[in-house]
Prior knowledge:
With 221 residues, this protein is of the alpha+beta class. 43% of the residues lie in helices and 15% in strands. It has 8 helices and 5 strands. The chain has a 5-stranded mixed β-sheet, sandwiched between helices. The longest helix has 17 residues, at 43-59. The chain is elongated and about 65 Å long.
Amino acid sequence: MRIKDISLENRPRERLMKNGVSALSDAELLAIIMKTGTYRENVIDMSNRLISKYGASKLSSCSMKELQEIRGIGQAKACQILSLFEFARRHSNTVSSKNPVKSAKDVFDILRPKIAYLEKEHFAVLMLDTKNRPIKEEIVSIGTLNASIVHPREIFRSAIKEGANSVIIAHNHPSGDPKPSVADRKITEDLINAGDVLNIKVLDHVIIGKDGYWSFNEETD
Length: 221
């Protein structure tokens, strides 16, 4: 069935205009981004197939090459999808909860959906107020497949600007195994020392795996 064969009131764009963006399914939202399907498959069916096969989390971390290996996805649609998820990642620094962060598990719950499944190491800082409530979260460095390159100035620049009382640092391990490396232990020590100089306490460094985490404060995975 072609989009033009769907009744006007049931087409994604018309449903958005009538009912608001929250009324649309993930597939309908993706369909609006991709705009068109192929002569074999309309854009809604294509979007449903993509989400059903890969899941939103996997789809959001696909490379250009991987996306173009999917039937019906050419260069233009791959660019649209990559741009969509990158825009969302860049502007997801407004934390969804103002509840105090009490444990590494809280950090894991906040950051896992955003960085656990990415193919490169992403180094994040969670900035907290005097009651350990999140002020802001920010990706401050993107490393290679095996290492994050991060400098204390990237970590603390925004923390100073936002007036943070303390920070929790975190990064993902693309392998899925959250156990720390020697380099992880060294950067943790360096950042704690830098925080002491600036009077911004580093409460923890949490390594995010696909199904678990490592906390330097709790020493658990």
